[in-house]
């Protein structure tokens, strides 16, 4: 299906917007009126620019407060028709009236819209009537369809907008009652599930499909079942996107439509971590931590300044590149690395160009929006990154595998990151949490793969002030108390100190366990099981956590996160 | 009355918070539990620190989900009592239960709270019971008082929180029904009027009294009428304050309480602008604009590199100091400059230290939180800044006075700036607006003095991305069309170009007026009158607007603001 986006969805001037939208591969645009009014180019020139970029102008919007008024006002509409003719836009969006002067009279609304459509038809223009969720009398899509049916004019149809429909209720099956030739346009937007004034929700928090909590695939299936085959058009008002780079937002928008359409390459989901890579000019700190945790240096890269450290199925590469220590790459185990790469590329992930020496394994890797390199590997087969290393000592110890990876996102790219990891890696997002830090709030969302072997946590500092929180690798351990005891004895100063007051509170909540206090281990419990955690100090932008899951505990110790964040700040 | 603040209201570690709170002159604190848990110091040391800083620990909070449970759990409470004894805190806040396990049984709630209070009394501790606005069964303050009355224990009283009460309704007169000796504590918070989930509203948007939309003076008067004479304590959860400098927030907090108590020096409000001062190393641009607008250089400062430009009652000082051109100072006409200065100082505004040459007029000036210098002057008398200038040519022309001044605030200091201008200058805030800019949203709030002679607009870029918008001086003109005609003819390139598409839309809305298009003048109209606007280009961080108010128009041309912002971006 043709893919479109409203110009209001991305930042910048109208010409910047058109350039960015075209570069992301869209077929057309809706021109948001304010973008035209603020543009120094005449409509004819905007039309030419769009055509040169291969973009059709699908709709001009919005035209407000027209129908069901005590008096019919066609003067304003005639002005708009002239602008649309100059612009080459053949469809006008009329939003349901919000004026206090509007009458609750469907017959009158239909009569006035019929006259408007008739005038529009004289200019070769059609009119799409949309029920705003906060319309004064018309706020339901079936009500707008009733009025269109009453008006009964070939140039008048409805515009369906997923936000206006899904914000009022989860079941849009009534869409199937509307004949396809009367659905003139389809606008798509997702949104987080928020309990707030619907107008504010719409104007500030909309996001692209797959970034919020609405069932957009279900919604689209009803619209397709009705027979609609027109464009899929994104209309998103979002405070973050308004400030972000337009080209980046447009790519994010396109990725959301590809995923929604189910048009991505259908590779199997990754089912485990193959490795994590730390980069840095000086990696002595992380190396000492790995050695203390019982990792063994098991290989050296043939051509790169990189070492492989292993224990159980946990593999960490130390790659001497870049500046301060950071989490540079993650490797994911997948049944078909080439297929996973094709899936990522079909979702507009840039493949990683890397010079390969002869004899090195082929690379299947892309760069995520946050700069993390994502490798697809099959460690059981002679492929992937593992094989470039000359193996040495066999690994063994209490650490069994990588439990999860926590990545950090700048505050205004959280939605983009979430969609990327969700669509490319088929991870399912869990509930979003807010964690107090001494200098702000951290928003955190865990994402899990279908088989449970891939767990990731996306963290974002709420706004800019506090700087980016650190990234981390969480290692799974089968006897964390023993490990902590050994580390305390043999490596004083390696672990993050936990305040004693925490243990007083823990005793109040769960009963006293003096060993936890002595070892500096954090504890959580829920109905499914128990969780133990310890942290090493931060090196550069990265630290290592060790966790032990006891029973069926599936969480990440959220109750302990404020303690950890404050302790890290104290260092 | 004693002034307190909850540690959660400011950023940082617990010791940072205590330092900042003491430095702002508070008498005591509520210790928020999470701040203690994350603190590496034992409670005894926190107690000593607070005492050394002259701060009492008034309350420990919150204790959750205790009352009306199927089983009585005193173990957790006994732990808290021990912590409180170490901390030296004599009052525990118990919030109404939010657990789904809580029973809707006032008798049971009262019975369990009575037992809790009795145990507390054994430790010399009292218990304050508070109805959370989102409590499961108890969410009204009179309901919490009913339960306290049923429990009937001397160590049990209520805690009244203005947010929990005013978020549920505007009339708190029932407070007067509670005996003063049963109101154990008073927590104060304001909030903007938002239609959203009350828990999210409370946790993210609370602000200090005078920064939101609640009637805090009315609320306080009821509590005082009930006979309460305990501390006034601020408890504010705010996403901006969490990230701001703790010392600055604490001063802001103290200012809010001084203003709320009516303890500021009662000087008369300013009633007009005496002058505006532009600073900059190179002021040739603004000087040329002033000359083109018909201003006359009417004086030179005796000792400073400053010139006075005048026309009508509009006075602009060009002061050759600083870097890029900016709005450095505003002068306000006030009947009693020394009294106005005393008022500002009583609201913790730092007085402006400035070396005065012999014979110069005395200065009555303070620095606002945004760095703007605010002078109090009486131009009709031999006082204030005006008299330091040697007068030259007499001023005359179409510009009559300064209509308003628009100042720019960093996004995380908007509440502070609003309270400062509101309390120090007695300005009344009008509705807050959001204006789309090509790279974000601008939040804008006009404030007007009681006599109408002082109008200010506070603008803030919604978050950091787009940078600070420019400040401006808006000059009132009695024939803006004539002025624009002359400027177009004699000074091409001086005015901000306005896109032609704007005039097509204006014609659709208000009818065609070809002269406006030709002159590049912006237009607005409402039921009270008409408004004309033009803008000069921006120099450094500042530009000049000229406005003409026709009839009773009181606005600022909000509908035109997106056009102006986009046009400024285009330059």
Textual characterization of the structure:
Two copies of one chain form a homodimer. By secondary structure, chain A is an alpha/beta fold. Chain A has three domains: 3-261, TIM Barrel (Alpha-Beta Barrel), CATH 3.20.20; 272-391, 2,3-Dihydroxybiphenyl 1,2-Dioxygenase, domain 1 (Roll); 399-570, 2,3-Dihydroxybiphenyl 1,2-Dioxygenase, domain 1, CATH 3.10.180.10. Chain A contains 17 helices and 24 strands. Chain A has an eight-stranded parallel beta barrel with strand order 1-2-3-4-5-6-7-8, surrounded by six helices. The first copy, chain A, has an eight-stranded mixed β-sheet with strand order 14-15-13-9-12-11-10-16. In chain A, helix 1 (14-23) crosses helix 10 (246-261) and helix 5 crosses helix 6 (141-151). Chain A is elongated. The relative contact order of chain A is 0.08. The mean pLDDT of chain A is 93. The interface between A and B is large, with 56 and 56 residues. Chains A, B: GO terms for molecular function: 3-dehydroshikimate dehydratase activity; isomerase activity; metal ion binding. Chains A, B: This is 3-dehydroshikimate dehydratase. Chains A, B: Catalyzes the conversion of 3-dehydroshikimate to protocatechuate (3,4-dihydroxybenzoate), a common intermediate of quinate and shikimate degradation pathways. Chains A, B: InterPro entries: DSD (IPR043700), Glyas_Bleomycin-R_OHBP_Dase (IPR029068), Glyas_Fos-R_dOase_dom (IPR004360), IolE/XylAMocC-like (IPR050312), VOC_core (IPR037523), Xyl_isomerase-like_sf (IPR036237), Xyl_isomerase-like_TIM-brl (IPR013022). Chains A, B: Its cofactor is a divalent metal cation.
């Amino acid at each position: 299906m043709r893919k479109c986006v409203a110009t209001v969805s991305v930042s910048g001037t109208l010409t910047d917007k058109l350039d960015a939208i075209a570069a992301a591969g869209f077929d057309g645009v809706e021109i948001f009126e304010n973008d035209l009014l603020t543009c120094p180019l005449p409509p004819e020139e905007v039309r030419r620019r769009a055509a040169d970029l291969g973009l059709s102008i699908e709709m001009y919007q919005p035209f407000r407060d027209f129908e069901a008024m005590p008096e019919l006002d066609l003067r304003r509409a005639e002005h708009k028709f002239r602008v649309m003719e100059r612009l080459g836009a053949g469809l006008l969006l009329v939003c349901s009236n919000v004026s206090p002067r509007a009458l609750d009279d469907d017959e009158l609304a239909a009569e006035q819209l019929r006259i408007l459509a008739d005038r529009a038809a004289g200019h070769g223009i059609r009119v799409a009537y949309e029920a705003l969720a906060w319309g004064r009398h018309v706020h339901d899509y079936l009500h707008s369809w009733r009025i269109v049916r009453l008006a009964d004019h070939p140039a008048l149809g409805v515009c369906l907008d997923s936000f206006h429909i899904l914000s009022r209720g989860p079941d849009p099956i009534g869409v199937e009652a509307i004949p396809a030739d009367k659905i003139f346009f389809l606008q798509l937007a997702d949104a987080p599930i928020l309990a707030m004034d619907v107008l504010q929700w719409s104007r500030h928090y909309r996001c692209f499909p797959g970034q919020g909590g609405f069932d957009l695939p279900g919604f689209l299936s009803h619209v397709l079942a009705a027979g609609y085959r027109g464009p899929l058009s994104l209309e998103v008002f979002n405070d973050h996107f308004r400030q972000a780079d337009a080209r980046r937002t447009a790519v994010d928008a396109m990725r959301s439509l590809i995923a929604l359409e189910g048009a991505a390459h259908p590779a199997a989901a990754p089912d485990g971590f193959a490795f994590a890579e730390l980069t840095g000019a000086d990696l002595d700190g992380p190396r000492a931590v790995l050695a203390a945790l019982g990792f063994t240096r098991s290989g050296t890269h043939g051509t790169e300044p990189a070492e492989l450290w292993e224990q159980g199925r946990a593999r960490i590469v130390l790659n001497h590149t870049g500046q301060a220590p950071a989490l540079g790459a993650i490797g994911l185990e997948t049944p078909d690395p080439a297929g996973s790469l094709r899936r990522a590329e079909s979702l507009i992930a840039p493949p990683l160009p890397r010079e390969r020496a002869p004899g090195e394994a082929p690379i299947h890797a892309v760069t995520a929006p946050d700069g993390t390199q994502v490798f697809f590997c099959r460690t059981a087969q002679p492929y992937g990154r593992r094989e470039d290393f000359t193996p040495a000592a066999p690994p063994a110890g209490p650490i069994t595998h990588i439990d999860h990876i926590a990545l950090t996102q700048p505050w205004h790219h959280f939605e983009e990151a979430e969609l990327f990891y969700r669509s490319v890696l088929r991870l399912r997002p869990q509930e979003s949490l807010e964690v107090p830090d001494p200098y702000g709030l951290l928003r955190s969302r865990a994402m899990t793969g279908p088989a449970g072997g891939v767990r990731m946590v996306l963290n974002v500092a709420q706004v800019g002030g506090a700087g980016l929180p650190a990234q981390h690798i969480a290692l799974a351990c089968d006897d964390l108390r023993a490990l902590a005891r050994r580390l305390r004895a043999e490596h004083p100063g390696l672990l993050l100190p936990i305040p004693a007051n925490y243990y007083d509170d823990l005793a109040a909540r769960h009963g006293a366990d003096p060993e936890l206090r002595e070892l500096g281990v954090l504890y959580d419990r829920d109905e499914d099981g128990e969780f133990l955690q310890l942290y090493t100090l931060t090196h550069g932008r990265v630290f290592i956590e060790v966790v032990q899951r006891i029973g069926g505990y599936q969480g990440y110790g959220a109750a302990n996160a404020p303690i950890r964040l404050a302790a890290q700040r104290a260092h």
